[in-house]
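Example S7 (structure tokens).
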């Protein structure tokens, strides 16, 4: 978002998340060392609440670009609309509840690897993480057997260690979200296939570590299958027809990323034509619902995942940061 705003000639007040500001500070330093003039890019850190309340009501703000949770994004949208004297641009990128469909015609080795990498990379703390998987009934047992085996091989630990794949959660609030979801699964008839634990061994030091968790047995439409958790809980269930699977995949307010594993081009075409998501993938073993790369693929969300439908890195993104003026000269 900073790059888009800078390329189109805007000045910026940039505030990274208060939970993890260091990457934002490094981005700021990179821009400044690259020659961005004084006063064009301005960095602010600290609690988000006071900053947000100031920004949505300040008359000199020409527009807001936000990446974060649905709740905060919707709050900004409402407050900015009401707090300004007239409508101003909003670019709001929010969360996801990203589905993967595993067809009976899938390569299960690719499917398992893609799901695991997408669900549990960054310990599930990314908007594009796979959070629910719909597996065709005929391959469900084989898929689950391979999935549990692969999840069991994940190394949990200090992310600075080369062999570590799964690091800590960001804060105690995330741990509380994880434990509450696990309790809800058990209380409401679901099954914890693997994981579901908070790790307290002294060897983990001060980090907040939990285990990558796979769940099944929840009914379609359950709140945990619709609402973003931002923790590493993967919900797996079954389907019979591809039409049914896509309908299940679309049963959420979010529409960020989605994936399918199938070796049938007809199934791929149906998926692309009917899934409601801004970024869609087929057979991506490197990450079933993750991996948008600048220069080759734009990244955007629909519905509760994004306000503009224009993907960053795509051909229309910069239009979000400019105004059009029609000029006519008569001599």
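Recovered sequence:
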């Amino acid at each position: 978002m900073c790059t888009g705003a800078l390329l189109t000639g805007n000045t910026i007040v940039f505030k990274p998340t208060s939970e993890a500001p260091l990457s934002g500070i490094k981005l700021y330093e990179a821009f400044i060392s690259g020659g961005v003039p004084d006063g064009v890019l301005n960095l602010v850190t600290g609690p988000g609440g006071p900053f947000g309340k100031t920004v949505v009501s300040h008359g000199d703000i020409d527009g807001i670009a936000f990446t974060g949770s649905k709740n905060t994004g919707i709050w900004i949208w409402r407050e900015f609309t009401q707090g300004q004297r007239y409508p101003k641009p909003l670019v709001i990128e929010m969360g996801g509840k990203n589905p993967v469909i595993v067809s009976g015609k899938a390569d299960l080795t690719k499917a398992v690897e893609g799901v695991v990498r997408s669900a549990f990379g960054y310990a599930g703390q990314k908007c594009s993480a796979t959070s629910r998987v719909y597996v065709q009934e005929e391959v469900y047992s084989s898929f689950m057997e391979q999935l549990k085996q692969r999840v069991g091989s994940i190394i949990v630990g200090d992310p600075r260690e080369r062999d570590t794949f799964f690091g800590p959660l960001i804060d105690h609030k995330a741990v509380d979200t994880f434990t509450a979801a696990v309790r809800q699964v058990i209380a409401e008839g679901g099954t914890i296939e693997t994981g579901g634990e908070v790790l307290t061994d002294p060897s983990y030091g001060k980090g907040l570590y939990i285990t990558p968790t796979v769940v099944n047995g929840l009914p379609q439409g359950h709140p945990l299958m619709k609402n973003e958790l931002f923790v590493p809980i993967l919900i797996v269930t079954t389907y019979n027809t591809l039409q049914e699977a896509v309908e299940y995949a679309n049963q959420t307010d979010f529409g960020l990323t989605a994936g399918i594993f199938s070796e049938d081009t007809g199934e791929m075409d149906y998926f692309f034509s009917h899934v409601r998501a801004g970024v869609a993938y087929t057979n991506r073993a490197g990450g079933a619902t993750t991996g948008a790369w600048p220069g080759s693929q734009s990244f955007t969300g629909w519905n509760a995942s994004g306000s503009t439908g224009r993907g960053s890195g795509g051909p229309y993104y910069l239009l979000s940061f400019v105004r059009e003026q029609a000029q006519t000269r008569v001599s």
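Notes on this example. Residues 172-187 form the longest helix (16 residues).
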